[in-house]
Amino acid sequence: MRNFMRRSVIFLGVFIFLFGCVIRNNVMAYTPIDLYDQVWRLINTKFVDQTNNSQDWSKWRHKYDNKIVTNEDAYVAINTMIASLNDPYTKFLDPKEFAEETSSIKGSLKGIGIQIAVKDGKLTVIAPIEDTPAEKAGLKADDEILEIDGKSTKGITVDKAADQIRGKEGTQVTLLIKRKDNEPKLYTITRAEIEIKSISQKIPENIKMPDDISYIRLSSFISRNAAGEFRSILENSVGKKGFIIDLRSNPGGLLSNAIYISDMFLDGGIIVSTVDRDGYKETQRATKGYVTNKPVVVLINKGSASASEIFSGAMKDNRRAVIIGEQSFGKGLVQEINKLPYEAGINITIQKYLTPNGTDINKKGITPDIVVKLTEENVKNKDDVQLKKAIEILQKMTSGQEIANY
């Protein structure tokens, strides 16, 4: 595992701000046509699907040779070429988008604090970031965004949607939201500078947490310091009999964080495997020894994606934790970010990952051991039945009781 981590830094996520990446620098003098050709070559050698969505990829190489004059021409041509892959996670980043992505990795960004993706052809909220304008306005995982400032999102790309939602701090954006069987509703949200907080131990409202249980809310795997902070909490949880790890609406982040945090609970065993375009499978195993062997409950929901699913899958398949909540998002793909000329970049899906049992969860998600749904009525009444169930189950585990159906 250590050799793997030295070779690359891979990110996982499904946000408008961050997708999984290994960063490579390619700084040379390029023309706009060279930029287009470099993207073609990178996809040709790296994209996880060797058939490139069952098409003759060579047809794209010189398709726009006589039409690309400016960088903007190259951007349009590149986006058209990438769209043919039918992969929402392989995307071109213009200089502005690449700078924003880099900013999010550093831990801050500007917008409303929302992660989105195109799911089944619909612009969908993956999760609002904790304590942001989006969360405070009431946006939730799986909300469909029908309009942005009065403009339909039909056929929109994640990039274009993100550009329309972002804006200067203090300005407003209005979203028309469709939630399940409810009538569409307008949400006007004021943009702000978003600080990405990874770890919190703040107990949710109306919850009585027993003194011998440690509650850890991990809202993302983005921060480079997340694993160290997490380990510190575990090591300093004196007198605690067990842990509740809340990954609800956690959209992902650094693969290394998912691996390191999993390793803190496992005494050997597989954490995750990745499979590339050539079918080469690389397996990441936990080291011998652990930070804690105390009982663990993990909370997930439909907003738990990518790195959250790697951690949840590792804990579930190794029978190290009881997973409670709802089916997770289902993003089993790994992206690599390649830095391009003119301060641009491209995210390319280079691998799929499998849980320790060899399960491909892409578009399927992790199934909880104990399914507990959070209804609109629960949310309205601030009745966190999922967390209450987690407390109940963990208390049984710490007292040595058997858990039914687990």
Task: Give a short synopsis of this structure.
The protein is of the alpha+beta class.
Write the layout of secondary structure elements.
Layout: H1 2-7, E1 11-13, H2 32-46, H3 71-83, E2 91-93, H4 95-106, E3 108-111, E4 114-119, E5 122-128, H5 133-137, E6 144-148, E7 151-152, H6 158-165, E8 172-178, E9 185-190, E10 192-195, E11 199-200, E12 213-218, H7 226-235, E13 242-246, E14 252-254, H8 255-263, E15 270-276, E16 281-285, E17 296-300, H9 307-317, E18 322-325, E19 333-339, E20 345-354, E21 370-371, H10 376-380, H11 385-398
Parallel strand pairs: 12-13, 13-17, 17-18, 18-21
Antiparallel strand pairs: 1-14, 2-20, 3-10, 4-5, 6-7, 6-8, 8-9, 11-12, 15-16, 15-20, 19-20
Helix pairs in contact: 2-3, 7-8, 8-9
> How many helices?
11
Q: What's the CATH first level of the largest domain?
A: Alpha Beta
The CATH architecture assignment of the largest domain turns out to be Alpha-Beta Complex
Low-confidence stretches: 1-9, 13-27
